[in-house]
Amino acid sequence: xxxxxxxxxxxxxxxxxxxxxxxxxxxxxxxxxxxxxxxxxxxxxxxxxxxxxxxxxxxxxxxxxxxxxxxxxxxxxxxxxxxxxxxxxxxxxxxxxxxxxxxxxxxxxxxxxxxxxxxxxxxxxxxxxxxxxxxxxxxxxxxxxxxxxxxxxxxxxxxxxxxxxxxxxxxxxxxxxxxxxxxxxxxxxxxxxxxxxxxxxxxxxxxxxxxxxxxxxxxxxxxxxxxxxxxxxxxxxxxxxxxxxxxxxxxx
Length: 252
Prior knowledge:
By secondary structure, the chain is an alpha/beta fold. The protein contains eight helices and eight strands; from the N terminus they run E-H-E-H-E-H-E-H-E-H-E-H-H-E-H-E.
């Protein structure tokens, strides 16, 4: 009897990541996880990332696909577009990760295990649970800002998630449908926070597994002042929405 593996889609938004994207795709393929697909969501990168993505797709025998968007309008919008497409394609597990090589692909088997064996609806690749860490290259003030952001979010929203701003996550399709991912309007770190908050409000089981967060290899960070301001205001906006059942959060 042939084993049936769930369809897994890794959604990877890109903007000027032509050097990093082939490396990431190769790392994902090297995991040799059955029925794993990569969906690149490119925001019309001027450096030709979209062309590179198309080449990778053509060489992948159907495991890499590309969603081309006309303009760059934020990481949150790119993730929503990619996740919506993955759901339409009957993906059962959807992983979100950055293209800048900061998220270790080696954590994916553990994240999938938590979903398949522990009943988690959302698994977060966390820098702040035991065994997790941030990039050694980060200066002290960047580490302090990251830690403060997570404390700030947790204090306002009461989230029992240690890495509330993390962008490396694995979701079940049903979880994304329950939180109505298509309706989320936040961007940047705010997008990550709102996703977690909606999962908590719906009482979904959330787990965190440790990762070592690497500094990007090529390119530059794309978070601007507008996104920083939105990130500061979003927890307060969410705070005054109707609160439902709390999530169950379990560390690795």
